Amino acid sequence: MFEYRLLRLDLSEWKAREEVLPESIIRKYLGGRGLGAYLALKEIPPHISPFSPENKIYILTGPLTGTAAFETGRYHVVGKSPLTGILGDSNSGGQFGPWLRFSGYDGVVIEGASDEPVWVSIVDGEVEFHPAKRLWGKGVVHTEKVIRREMKTPSEHVGSILSIGPAGENLSRIAAIMNDKYRAAGRTGLAAVLGSKKFKALFVKGSRKIELADKERFRAESKKVMKKISEHSISEALGKYGTAVLVNIINAHGAFPTKNWTRGTFEKAFEISGEYLAEKYLVSNKGCWGCIIQCSRVAKVDKGPYRTPVSEGPEYESIWSMGANTLIGNLEAIIKLNYLANDLGFDTISLGNTMAVLMELYEKARKGELPKEKAEELFNLLEDIEPEWGNADAFIQLVWRTAYRHGIGDKTAEGAMRLAEYFGSPESAIHVKGLELPAYDPRGINSMALSYATSNRGGCHLRAYAVSFDVLGVPEKYDPVKIDMRKVELVKYQQDYFSVIDSLVVCKFNTFATDHNDYVPLLQSALGWDDLTGDELLTIGERIYNLERLFAVREGHGYQDTLPKRLLEEPLPDGPAKGLTAKEALEAYLPRFYELRGWENGIPKPETLKRLGLEEFEYIVR
Amino acid sequence: MFEYRLLRLDLSEWKAREEVLPESIIRKYLGGRGLGAYLALKEIPPHISPFSPENKIYILTGPLTGTAAFETGRYHVVGKSPLTGILGDSNSGGQFGPWLRFSGYDGVVIEGASDEPVWVSIVDGEVEFHPAKRLWGKGVVHTEKVIRREMKTPSEHVGSILSIGPAGENLSRIAAIMNDKYRAAGRTGLAAVLGSKKFKALFVKGSRKIELADKERFRAESKKVMKKISEHSISEALGKYGTAVLVNIINAHGAFPTKNWTRGTFEKAFEISGEYLAEKYLVSNKGCWGCIIQCSRVAKVDKGPYRTPVSEGPEYESIWSMGANTLIGNLEAIIKLNYLANDLGFDTISLGNTMAVLMELYEKARKGELPKEKAEELFNLLEDIEPEWGNADAFIQLVWRTAYRHGIGDKTAEGAMRLAEYFGSPESAIHVKGLELPAYDPRGINSMALSYATSNRGGCHLRAYAVSFDVLGVPEKYDPVKIDMRKVELVKYQQDYFSVIDSLVVCKFNTFATDHNDYVPLLQSALGWDDLTGDELLTIGERIYNLERLFAVREGHGYQDTLPKRLLEEPLPDGPAKGLTAKEALEAYLPRFYELRGWENGIPKPETLKRLGLEEFEYIVR
Asked: Where are the domains of chain B?
């Protein structure tokens, strides 16, 4: 019998309480993202402020986390998002997920709110609350250092730390939960929720063994899948050049958003590419716990104004958002920005988008295209900063100001949507449901139009990574700018399959080589679920996808599936996708998508919920 | 009868209490600095931590503040210093002093400590406590803006605000109390004491009239002195080029400390001079309340990485400390650094010295001249920063890190002495009694050796401005590098006279044109002290100077009058003072100084205290 051991940390009282979830819940929601969605919908009251003590943060592993399967070094975080106002969640690699399980618990729930800063350690089931006053205001690197000293665990191969930086402390809606110094559960601003609870960090360590129903079979099945993964060409490319191998590829497709999504190609793409990074700044590859791909970069900049110590990153998304999207074509500057964003605790996708909005606002203000009093206020708040396109030095200073909400930082800390709205130019923010979009222009990769618009957490490429078939040819190649209704099915399939992936919890980078059926024998042997089928797994994924949508419906917003006006109405002016918008594709795909999902206007039908065993939540759609 | 109305703000209880001091106390200590020293010695218990709620901050005006005399726009702050551990005090111009008096009180005492951030308004005697949570973490410019909005007082000509920035909040020992956005009571780190009390700001406004015993005579006497001041050539130079007119002058004397006091001349002096500032970046002159000299600069940098909005500064000291002393020869960068230092709330003299120490430590670490483990820790804490000599971009980032104690900022926030000691190189910090030295090398201006060594608040040029006679020829010209025992008398005279100046409270820049006798008719007519003589005034000054010394004696340290090793032992390698140290001068002057003062080994003799009417404090020296 699989038991999911949950630890509830009541910060209001500095008390811990253990809870064991029955296997029936795990069979329905698996763990990670699915379990988080289920618990959040049950436990977080409707319509509360994300900064209310009633909000909760679920830090969850899944049944495969930390096992010897493959790429099982991740964990998932769930809570009500201060950025989108609907269910927020994010996923991160490194070492934290496995060490959390080894510490004795499969998941931790952060509840209530502390009066004073606090951090918590869990060592072999022993929970301790520590005052964190001396850590409050500190960067992530320093925080980990101090905690490791205090816990007498200097080696970074033993134990792991999750923490927030000043961005989260100061309630920036684009703050990231960080772990292992440079890894981020970045999206949807959940670090600000931890900040509102005065929760600084979580240290985990222990020697709990993960039990498996049939160890031998599990090992054999793992081996098979691992072979598939390691032999796949995309795995190889990721290992060689990291995720930034995509820079040149996506730029060549004219779908590399440039200058705040006003262009699809960047003339300096090569100079910020994974290939260039490998040639100039790479120290080594690195992988998460138990990973064979090793896509993470360890880089440094030796000299000059952008000197950066040996540290992880930058990823494709960070290079794009803080590079092409702000017209910064200097990889050294981007490496430094990435380091600062990590240390201060920002989601780099959201931060880069927000800075691009600021640069656009600044340009508009100077051209007299903002309301006069808004332009004046903007200049006033900018004080000594000139956020011109491509100005990396201004960006560096703005990272500090945003982290500490200094001057204009008080506005940029709110994220792209609120920043653009505040200054009277809402169309400048490229987001879906409040979450800033990542590095693929749906005008050039049209399945991403549907993927973005229907993502349950807002603008995101990880609910369905349509780039996979539209660009990379997995499972087979489609024309990225042709409307093809088969793509709708693929998007839906990915959404469901990826829900499973995020709940198990494993890494999505193995999905280039696997499909959902690969997980059936693994889960049978790991959990003793001998009657599990591929169809059931996909149904679990669909259940999770509906569950998340129900949270948005209950909040009364966030189920409207659309794209920013710029992408729907302004044709790309350059590159292979020149002249295209995302409107036609979205209008073609969306009705079919709703049909496949059993949704009406974005809201699950009661019979859909019944089919998925979600009767208890039917009240939300009635 | 002159009454001094003191307002005591008990932050622990958010309560205000009024107290009227009898004229007898004012006749002994005048106000401002003298009164502060007296109250501090009576009220602050010995040996407490400067961050204890038992410490107090006295914000005091004097009997001439805000009158129509001349240069009466200043106020004085006193408290136990977290930088020196002895009595700290500092003085600032702008509009605050007069508006404090107009608000109904001559002085405010900040006592106790608040649990949560608080700011206070005083409007025509009405005192209100306001929660300051939303202002905590904010810069000075923003803080003033918000408070002015809240107090419905948009015009900067009405009312005034004193506040601290993030530096003070985060207990930086080199934090400045700011007022009128760009004016600083900078020295001795008293802003950190306000930070420890969670006191963010004080708004003052009102229409109280300052009563004068004989208005007509006062006006006539003022006019006479004003004429002297306005016709003096130094007043004129100060108006034309600001205090930075000194850059070229002091550099020409080879006493312009360069590269952390290892040289006496800076090859780029002209490019950071007042003349250059006036030519390139000056918007206008500006003066404090009621001033005829108008020495303050309003400057801006229009474009580029060092863009700075229209704002006050930089002064000579800031240009030197953040320029020549760190080898930064770019005035645009200095203007920006000055702006940031003001907004985040730093003492620029201490900040520049501290950064120069960091640059020296960094150089030593790279050359292998620091203990190995200290060098490693330094590199570690520096993270992505390379504080090379002259690296303005690194300095800009370090200002942020220091304000928020991020990484190395946790060490630089402690000031030069503690930074240098921490990294095993105490000789790198150029300070007296913990206070970083200002911009005159005593090896090239030897009276400053005595002035610095015997300054009661630590390394300071404002207790006795020997530059006046050694360089500027006021009251007559001496040879700056010749030992001349008459200078000892002049230093003592200035110390006593300046104690009066700081207690009245007026601006020291009129002392080029005045002596203590000029104040006798003014005080007679203002206060009705018809029997006041010049001798009595000087005795008051001497009393104050002894009082301050008693505080140090009571603390058991800080009365050792010496200079940093570098200035005593390392001859200047360049310029007109090449080959000289400050040792010979100090050794010649100090015994005579003690003799004149009636001190033994730096400690006032009982008979001296008796002569000065300080019998109540004799217990300290017994």
From this structure: 4-205, 242-432, 443-562+582-620
Say yes or no to pLDDT of A71 above 80.
Answer: yes
pLDDT tens-place string over residues A238-269: 999 999 999 999 999 999 999 999 999 999 99
Listed in order, strand segments (DSSP E) in A193-348 are 199-205, 282-286, 296-301, 308-312
Residues of A in contact with B388 (CB under 8 A): none
H-type alpha helices, B388-484? 392-403, 409-412, 416-422, 447-453, 467-470
Residue that has been written with the tokens 């829900």 in this structure: A499
d(CA B439, CA B548): 24
pLDDT at A2: 87
In chain B, what residues touch A308 (CB-CB under 8 Å)? 384
- Mark yes or no for CB contact A137/B404 under 8 Å: yes
Burial class (CB in 10 A: 0-12, 13-18, 19+), A303: exposed
User: CA A453, A456, A459, A464 torsion: positive or negative?
Assistant: negative
Residues above pLDDT 90, as percent of chain B: 97
Tell me which chain B residue has its CA closest to the CA of residue A304: B386
Q: Return the SS3 of A517.
A: helix
For residues B270 and A341, give the distance between their C-alpha atoms in angstroms, rounded to a whole number. Answer: 39
Q: Is the pLDDT of residue A432 over 80?
A: yes
The per-residue pLDDT for range A190-240, each reduced to its tens digit, is 999 999 999 999 999 999 999 999 999 999 999 999 999 999 999 999 999
pLDDT at position B1 is 77
Q: Looking at beta carbons, which residues of chain A come within 8 Å of B170?
A: 137
Query: B-chain residues within 8 Å CB-CB of A141?
Result: 383, 407
A396 touches chain B (CB under 8 A): yes
Tell me which DSSP letter residue B346 carries: B
Cβ-based neighbour number of residue B578 at 10 Å:
15
**Total CB pairs under 8 A between chain A and B:** 80
* Residue B413 CB-density burial (10 A; 0-12 exposed, 13-18 middle, 19+ buried): buried
Determine the Cα angle at B562 with ends B559 and B564, to 5°: 130
B321-341 pLDDT per residue, tens: 999 999 999 999 999 999 999
Cis peptide before A606 (omega within 30 of 0): no
pLDDT of A464 above 90: yes
Quick one: pLDDT at residue B133?
A: 94
Closest-CA residue of chain A to B144 = A407
Question: What ipTM did this prediction achieve?
Answer: 0.71
Q: How much is the average pLDDT of B170-175?
A: 98
Using CA coordinates, name the residue in chain A closest to B384: A308
CATH architecture label of B242-432: Orthogonal Bundle (1.10)
CATH number belonging to domain A4-205: 3.60.9.10
Integer Cα distance of B249 and A4 in angstroms: 77
Q: Round to whole Å and give the CA distance between B340 and A139.
A: 21
Least Cα separation, residue A238 to chain B (angstroms): 27
Put simply, whether A393 touches B (Cβ < 8 Å) is yes
CATH 3.10.310.70 matches B443-562+582-620: no
| Closest residue of chain B to A406, computed from CA coordinates | B138
Q: Chain B contacts of A394, Cβ < 8 Å?
A: 305
The reported pLDDT for the residue numbered B171 is 97
pLDDT of residue B360: 98
Q: Helix (H, G, I), strand (E, B), or coil: what is residue B129?
A: strand
Of A119, A227, A175, residue with least CA distance to A518? A227
The pLDDT tens digits for B528-565 are 999 999 999 999 999 999 999 999 999 999 899 999 99
- For B390, phi then psi, to 5°, come to 80, 0
Query: Are the Cβ atoms of A407 and B340 closer than 8 angstroms?
Result: no
* pLDDT surpasses 90 at A328: yes
